[in-house]
């Protein structure tokens, strides 16, 4: 029986992970939230983990009272999150927290020899070089949860040692597909949060609307599959049925298809290499009928070029791109800046923060802090 820790169990990916648990042979040893303690209490009573964490201190105090009659240990803060990742006795850690707060617990889990089911793409965007090196050194697997990266992982199993010539990363295009930058500039929070195909947390939903999400995924794919960014093509696919594809030297292209439902990639990361029945609805190709593909509009979605630039430069650029984006998305969600300003603030951070090619963990944390300050200024 696999022992699983779920970081961010109260979020979109976290709750879907809990949902597929009955399909797999697993024991949950740790759960975490930031402050949604009512849901965490329910999850803890159902799953009886060894430890839980509420990152917010007051939430953790309240949760301790709620779980006083159970054997579950209640922790708080970044130390608690890290303990849940590295000291809960897990075999595999699902990283489903949002944002670069996932970086330190992910590194701690790798250091402790845990496999990672990685949803938290910001970790790889900020510090992909450090994380992949640590995983190699420790011999741990980084199993992708992000649907596109899971698709690539599944397609790449046809490689049998042959290198991938190209990765084709599909993108739904989000709610503003077909609009110009001027038309998008002052869209509301509600319009930006209305994703056509996926129901996700607020931050990634805004990233999908700006298409920064696809930019982050480009960097995520670059690190996961050791690919040059110019060999990763982005293509708009409105139906979200083809989750991504790979191409080999002979031009053969292999794709993975399915209805848009995160429970399949989550489950596969947890059962790999085994395949077991999954509760997601099945794709009927005759019903899907038509699959469409378009080149992305780099002018309307400047975030794509910013991410391509950061991917090409590597060093601290991923941390700057991500930190500025997290801060700018936060400002937009709080009603402080226009939608069109998100990419402008990320561009400003990339322009003003001096570039560093070789990075340590401290450099990544410093770049992240500088980027947040630049984006908020
Ligand atoms: P959600 O916002 O739905 O959930 C995030 C989780 O992290 C919640 O449990 C939340 O707690 C917790 N959390 C938030 N802030 C902090 C913090 N500062 N410290 C500790 N914990 C925190 O996000 P998603 O599930 O949508 O996304 C999670 C990750 O997965 C992201 O990196 C995203 O890019 C990635 N991903 C998500 C997909 C999706 O379909 N949702 C698809 C592919 C990737 P609380 O409930 O208290 O807020
Ligand atoms: Mg994705």
Quick recap of the structure?
The chain has 377 residues and is of the alpha/beta class. It is 47% helix and 15% strand. Strand 10 (242-247) and strand 11 form a beta hairpin.
Describe, in plain words, how this protein is organized in 3D.
By secondary structure, the chain is of the alpha/beta class. It is built from 17 helices and eleven strands. The chain has a seven-stranded parallel beta sheet, with helices on both faces. β3, α3 (57-66) and β4 form a beta-alpha-beta unit. α5 packs parallel to α6. The longest helix is centred in the middle third of the chain and has 18 residues, at 121-138. The termini are far apart. The relative contact order is 0.12. Bound molecules: NADPH dihydro-nicotinamide-adenine-dinucleotide phosphate and magnesium ion. Magnesium ion is lined by residues 146-148, 217.
What's the SSE blueprint?
Layout (H helix, E strand, L loop, with lengths): L1 E6 L4 H9 L5 E8 L3 H11 L3 E4 L2 H10 L6 E4 H10 L5 E4 L7 H9 L3 E4 L2 H18 L3 E3 L2 H9 L10 E6 L9 H4 L4 H4 L9 H9 L1 H14 L6 E5 L5 E6 L5 E5 L5 H9 L13 H4 L13 H12 L3 H17 L7 H12 L8 H16 L1
Parallel strand pairs: 1-2, 1-5, 2-3, 3-4, 5-6, 6-7, 8-9
Antiparallel strand pairs: 8-10, 10-11
Helix pairs in contact: 2-3, 4-5, 5-6, 6-11, 6-15, 10-15, 11-14, 14-16, 15-16, 15-17, 16-17
Bound molecules: NADPH dihydro-nicotinamide-adenine-dinucleotide phosphate and magnesium ion (MG).
